[in-house]
Amino acid sequence: MTSTTVTHRPVRWGRVAVHLGCLAALLVMLYPLAWLLATSLKPADEVIASLNLLPSRLEWSNYSTALDGVNDVSIWRLLGNSLLIAGGAVLGNVISCSLAAYAFARLRFRFRGPLFAFMIATIMLPHHAVLIPQYIIFNQLGLVNTYWPLILPKFLATEAFFVFLIVQFMRGLPRELEEAARIDGCGPFRSFFQVVLPLTRPALITTAIFTFIWTWNDFFTQLIYLFDPDKFTLTLALRSFVDASSTSAFGPMFALSVIALLPIVLFFLAFQRFLVEGMASSGVKG
Questions:
Q1: Measuring CA to CA, how many Å separate 181 from each of 195, 256, 269?
Q2: Which residues cross the membrane (predicted)?
Q3: What's the burial of 269, exposed, middle or buried (CB within 10 Å: 0-12/13-18/19+)?
Q4: Contact (Cβ atoms closer than 8 angstroms) between residue 92 and residue 158
């Protein structure tokens, strides 16, 4: 008879420590989300007074109050306004930034280098530095208290970060594909739409995800340009919900925060694999 010896792999305590550290970091990052969900179900007297994570009883009326809307504006109107602004911003950034990125990455024209450097420098420009000049321009055009100041700049390739992101991705694409299309008679626009644009899908989806999240969560810019409660978004409604009565209704406000968070989570889960692919591919070549 032959005897077989079973070898046991030694426990790698370093790897165990790394996994435990990652688990602890995950719990720390998820705690605010868990606190938000728990607080949205707390009674009004426990939201501020109690430090316990779990409520003593579930207050489902917070969600029914939140679904009634704010300032006689239904939550569906608020949700539609947010989707309109976020969708317009996504469409504008994807179209304009991809066109600008194609010009910088593929075309040859005078002062391309200085213009690209100037475009990159605008990333360091604070948003508040250009807010007042933009407000004056839109006010003179009579577009204040409309959605145009929140959507129109996105169609002018004003987001230098996304232009740079797509440029880095396009520089990694083989030029032979465009040369073959040019031999077949394709001009720059046709080569862009039929050859380059389909291959740039990961970077475009990355642009769409970040634009959607940043626009959906934007509060300051929407507060500057929107005055009419019928034009308010969910972000503005959260602030208005506190002042809707003499006493701040924190329970319904947190319930509305959970509702406002759901579209972002669903949008991210639907396109997260493209986000990772786009961010990884755009940094391969500089």
A1: 8, 51, 35
A2: 16-38, 83-104, 116-138, 150-170, 191-216, 249-271
A3: exposed
A4: no
d(CA 47, CA 28): 21
Q: pLDDT tens track of the chain, all 286 residues?
A: 455 555 556 657 778 888 888 889 988 888 888 888 888 888 877 777 777 778 878 888 888 888 887 778 888 999 999 999 999 999 999 999 999 999 998 888 888 889 999 988 888 888 888 888 999 999 999 999 999 999 999 999 989 999 999 998 888 888 888 888 888 788 888 888 888 888 888 889 889 989 999 999 998 999 999 999 899 999 888 877 665 454 567 788 888 888 888 888 888 788 777 666 655 554 444 4
Q: Is the CB of residue 90 less than 8 Å from the CB of residue 204?
A: no
Distance of alpha carbon 198 from alpha carbon 266, whole angstroms:
24
- Cα–Cα distance, 46 to 56 (Å, whole number): 8
To 10 degrees, what angle do helices 75-106 and 234-242 make? Answer: 140
SS3 call for 47? helix
**263/217 Cα distance (integer angstroms):** 11
Q: Which two tokens stand for residue 84?
A: 């309109």
Q: Report the alpha-carbon distance of residue 184 to residue 182 in Å, rounded.
A: 5
Residue ranges and CATH numbers for the domains of the chain are 13-58 (no CATH), 71-283 (1.10.3720.10)
Q: For the chain, how are helix, strand and coil distributed in percent, rounded to 5?
A: 70, 0, 25
Look up residue 285 and give its two tokens.
């070549």
Sign of CA dihedral 234, 148, 141, 160: positive
188-197: b (≥16 Cβ within 10 Å) or e: eeebbeebbb
> Cα–Cα distance between 214 and 86 in angstroms, integer?
9
